[in-house]
Amino acid sequence: MNPFKRFGKTKSIVGIVVLVLIIFGIYYFAFIRKASPYQFVTVTQGAITEEVSVTGNTTPIQSLDLGFQNGGIIASVNKAVGDQVAAGDVLERLNTSDLEAQLAQAQANVDAANAQLQSLQAGAQPADIQNSEAALAGGQQSLANMYASAENTLNDSYTKANDAVRNQLSAFFTSAETNNPQITFSVSNSQTLNNAESERLRASTELNLWQSELATVNASSPSSTLDAALQNATAHLSVIKAFLNSVSQAILLEANLSPATLNTYNNQLTAANNEFTTATTNINTTIQNIASQKITIQQLQAQLNLKLAGSTVQQIANQQAQVEAAEANVRNVQVQINEATLASPIDGVVTVQNAKVGEIATPGTTMTSLISNDDFEVDSEVPETDIGKISIGQTVTMTIDAFSGETFAGKVFYIDPAQTDISGVVNYTVKVSFSKPDPRIKSGLTVNLDIQTQQQNNALILPQYAIIQSDQGTFVDVIQNGKEVQVPVTLGIQDQSGNVQILSGVTKGEQVVNIGIK
C-alpha cells in the first residue's frame, strides 16, 4: 500500500474526530452546562457557643470573702470553719421557691409570646376568626344578661332600703311620713335630735323619688337607662346612709329609754344597717361587673379587628421584641437562681462562716471566707455592654502570652457589683479561678479570656455573611422556582467565628444564597 495514501486516510479520521469533539463542546457549553450565577451556604446543625473575650492579669490569691449578690433567706449551710472545700462545692444556698415560681411564669410568658409571634407570621386562620367572633358574641351576651338582671337588683335594693327606713326603724318616729316626723325618745343634744328628724324626712322623700324612677325601668330598657338607674341608686343609698348615721348618733345620746327598749332599738338599727349594706353591695357589684364586661368586650373586639386586618411588618417586629424581652426575663430569673447558690470557686479552707440557716442574707455582706490552696486568680475588666451576659460559675478558656500554644481552664467566681471607670468607659471587675494549679504561673502575666456565656446544642447555624439585616427585619436569600426571594429569619446567639444561631425561618440542610460573595 502506498504510505502516503495511508497517512492521508489517518489524517482525515483525526480531523473528523476533532470536528466531532468541537461540535460536542459547543453543544455542551451552550445547552447542557449552564453555570449558576449564585453560590450557596448550607444550613448546618450543631453546637454553638456565645463567648465574651477580655484580657486580664494573674493576681496572687491571699483569701476570698464570698457573699450573695442578692438578698434572701438562707436555706442551707454546708461548710463550717476549718473544712476543706474543693472548687464547685456548695457552701450555702438561699431559698429559691419564689424565684422558681417566677421562672415558670417567665417561661410561660416566652411560650405565649412565641405563640403570638407565630400566629402573626402565619396570619389569621378562618377558625381563629370564628373563635374570636364567638368569644365576642359570648361577651356581648354576658353583658346583656347582666343588664337583664339589673332590674331585679335595683328593685331588691330599693326594697331593702325601704324596709330599713320604714319598717325596721318604724318605732323610732311618729308621723314618719309627714313633713314633721318626731323622734319617740328623748335625746340629750337638740342638734342631734333635729338632725335625725330632718334626715328621716329626707329619707322618705328620697325613697319616693327612687320608687318613681324604678317605675320606668324594666329588663328591656336600654343599657343607658339601666346605667343611669344604677348610678342614681348609689345616690339614693347615700341619703339612706346619712339617715342611719343620724339615728345611730341619737341612740347614743338617748335620755329616757329603758335598758330593754334600748336593746330592742339597737337590734332594729343593726338590722336596718345590714339591709342597707346588702343593698349597697349588690348595686356596686352590678356596676363593677358591667364595667368590667364592657372592657372585656372592647378587648375581644380589638382582637377580632386585628385578625380581620391581618399582621403588619411593624406588628411582627413589635411581637418579636416582646419575645426577646420575655426571653431576657427568663435569663434574668435564671441568673438570680444561679446566684442563690454560693459555691467555692477554688480549692481551699473555710476561715470564716457567718451564714446561719433561717437568717436573711444581705447583698454584698461576707458570708464565708476562704484561704485558697491555689496561688493565683485572673482579674479582668468587662465592659458594661457585656457584663449582663456574665454570671458566676461560667466556664472560661484562657491563654497566657508567656505559654504560647497552651490553654488553661477556669471559672468565673466573682463579679464586682461596683463599676470601675477606665478612660471614661464603665467596666466591672470579674475574677476567674484556675481549674488546676500550675507552678509556672507568676504574678502579672497577661491572660486572654474567652468566657462562655451561652451554649446551644443541635442549633441551626449559618455564617453571619449569609444574613441580611435591614430596617424591615432579618432575612436570608433562597432560590424558589428559579427566583431569588427573601425569607425572614429569627436569630439567636453568635459565636466568635461569625456563626449565628437561626431560631426560625430555615431548616437543616437548606441552601441559602451566599450574599457575602454575591
Outline of this structure?
The chain contains 8 helices and 23 strands. With 518 residues, it is an alpha+beta fold.
Describe the structure.
There is one protein chain. The chain has 518 residues and is of the alpha+beta class. The chain is built from eight helices and 23 strands. The chain has helices spanning 3-32, 97-122, 126-168, 190-214, 223-252, 259-309, 313-339, 384-387, and strands spanning 40-42, 44-60, 64-66, 72-77, 84-85, 90-94, 173-174, 182-183, 341-343, 348-353, 360-361, 368-372, 376-383, 395-400, 408-422, 425-434, 446-463, 468-470, 473-480, 483-488, 490-494, 499-504, 511-513. A hairpin with a 2-residue loop joins strand 18 (468-470) and strand 19 (473-480). Helix 3 crosses helix 4 (190-214). The radius of gyration is 41 Å and the shape is flat. The model is unreliable at 28-34 (pLDDT under 50).
